[in-house]
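QA checklist item 7 of 12: single-chain prediction sanity check.
[x] sequence parsed
[x] length recorded as 573
[x] structure emitted
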Amino acid sequence: MKKITLKHCLIAATALSFLCSGCSQLPEPQHKKNSVENRSQARTKSGKQSLEATIQNSEALALKGLNSMPDANSSMMYALPEPSPAQYIHDQVPFPPYPELQRESYNALEESPFINTANDPLSTFSIDVDTASYANVRRFLNDGRLPPPGAIRIEEMINYFTYNYLKPKNNKPIAITTELGPCPWQPKHKLVRIGLQAKDIDTTKLPPSNLVFLIDVSGSMNHANKLPLLKKSMLMLVDQLTARDRISIVVYAGADYVVLEPTAGDKTTTIKKAINSLNSGGSTHASSGITTAYKLARQVFMPGGNNRIILASDGDFNVGITSRDQLEKLIAKERESGIYLTVLGFGMGNYHDDTMEILADKGNGNYSYIDSLLEAKKVLVKERIRTLFTLARDVKLQIEFNPAKVGAYRLLGYENRVLADEDFNNDKKDAGEIGVGHTVTALYELMPTDDKTLPSVDPLKYQSTTHTSENSAEILTIKLRYKPLKSKKSSLIDQPVIDRNVALKQTSNDFRFAASVAGFGMMLKKSKYTADFTYDQLISLAKKAKGTDGDGYRAECIRLMETAQLLVDSEKK
């Protein structure tokens, strides 16, 4: 190895200085890729690169940076040359390994336990129309890895798929559909499916949209499955807009600025030019961008229109307000303006799912993860209306179980959506929104009253636990509260469910497929509640319940189940 001289040290220091001040945005040398990520890996992988080679690479970058610096009066902005994105247009094609260290973050949620009905017959929760978890799980499996437990939210996996539910009648915006059958992984238990169907609205009767895209263009978005994929996704949505709509674009990195002032939706050439001009580089000052986006949305607010911010990012916020508690307060304050929030997640390696989920939950919005152009088309084109147009706010469910028929119950998923029973009638309590034509599904697993594994609770001293419902045919009653868009007062719908005994094969395809997706999530989580249920049984259940599958989403899910089985089996060897 050559002797390290002072010259080498000065050149290396110069390169480091450029890196700290945004040199990552400089065009990279043609002879070798010198991204921050690759240098980070070089330093952390001992024996992979010699100190001499590291200094030589730093020298090349430093000299190139010194030779290409603009003068003090120049207004030139550094921008990375846009990477040549691979054509990730099919969900079955995984992205290549992400170059930087794995530092994705997720909320760890404990599965809901069984609750003894005699002591607590009420279960209350907010609906959830997010689908991000399923697409993210798909990304992990297509990449040949099992997802971390925190990435798996069973309700989002179930709600990724649409089901054939009853349409609303009598001018009600939401209809309730229920079905009862055996639990596939615990045949002595029952499974109840509760489905909500929001009213459809003819596209010609939809209100105009005031859309503000809030785009993360920081250095962390410089990867083919981030900003390049995001730009292609935006271009697809632009083609759906009309002259009645308005679209604006705010970008943020170390600071934020408006790339596109409010522009009529039919000015596609102007809009697409602004989108194609986006390049990445710098740190991530998300809170500043959020404030600017809401301010711009308020400036062109459409009374009676669809006012919405579409935030697209990997969630890697590192400047300004970065704590999740502070971000939550910021978003909760801004939502009072009547502006909704759609969150689109992109990327891998440094993806912060926990941050993205908080933003959507607190911003009266929804959350999707975009891992391919096909997923972008699903969210922003095929399901554009249900994604972007809210039908009802603060939608809550409260289930009362009949203790004469249900010994204990367990809600599958929705762990971070559980509400206090008292919150059901409290119109000040925030809950989830449901979009036009949207479906929402929830599953409960029910234990019979004579089950020997019922959770044990001491008898109450000051309250009788006897009940007078032995002769009732009802197994439970569903109560639904929602706020129409122009009302601050909630409306109530209630519907009982009659107990019945049917074989699993007599249930609908939708019932069995939803159960298979829930079982899939539980097996990925290594849930203790799946007992001896196997992947072979799971896949067989899903295949027989695939039914009509015009878009192929259910067939894809079955392939993911088969992939997970192979990965689990390989871990055992």
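[x] summary fact logged: The radius of gyration is 26 Å.
[ ] second reviewer sign-off
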